[in-house]
Amino acid sequence: MIISRTPLRVSFCGGGTDIDDFSMSEPNGGRVVSAALSRYVYVTVNRRFDDRIRVSYSTMEDADSLENIQHGLVREALRLTGIESGVEITTIADIPGQGTGLGSSSSVTVGLLNAMHAFQGRRVSKEQLAEEACQIEIDILGAPIGRQDQYAASFGGVNSIRFGENGVQVEPIEVSEGLSKKFSENFTLVFTGLTRSASKVLSEQSDDESDKNSRMTEIRKHADEAASHIEHGDLDSLGAILNQTWISKRGVSSMVTNTQIDELYERVISSGALGAKLLGAGNGGFLLVCGNQHLRGILQRELGEGHRMFPLEIDFSGSSIIFGT
To answer: Is residue 320 part of a domain?
Structure first.
């Protein structure tokens, strides 16, 4: 049996600039500053006693051939890694469900590939895992998404990731043990209570493409500032810039936000947060909130049990094989 563990991710600034339409046309390319989260997707791959393929996730599939598997990510990962029959695959997540804004689909894809390559006796690089995950999600399955999530999940840590005509470059940002602790104390993820399809949000066409491009250029600049703030250990300034990037992002599409999210954002800010933004494509998932180390307790009292929350604890390992025989 092989078991892979792959982190989810938190994007501070630059989300959306990793989509090819923007990164390939912008002179400076796209840039995203993100951190891998110590919340994980686990994938197991085990040999079966017969030639069938069994897949267990939110539902169960028992197929007699690769082509009959309905789960597109599993099917294409099997095809790419050369596994055609005789396996049982399961996926389990610390934060179940899609539409959380934490890059779960890409974490699943990276984790599947890592486990399947190991099942075939191969240990591949983090770069290869990310590239193959992009190939499956974007090139083969046609998801209208960017390329940040696959690299964040594969590499782990805190990174500045650049996108453009020269491909993808991952630039790790060194984070000391003390700074990692400050991230955990000062940044909180607050669940909105809503989930959504990222592809549906990202597929919506803007009524004003010129305004959208202007906003995306601003978001790209915010990523430059975010990287500098982290390098200097200035988490207060990083938190404050979340507000700016949220203001720019919420005007990109009418599907990015809604009344419930706007009200939650205002309650968070009025509770003393330095800054906040919705993670992922928008319209659901988690808010990333920055404040002092006492803010989390205040939010728990103000928001109540209806909004689950947890600290931003960083994973530095990326996708890993944690068990393999």
So the answer is: no
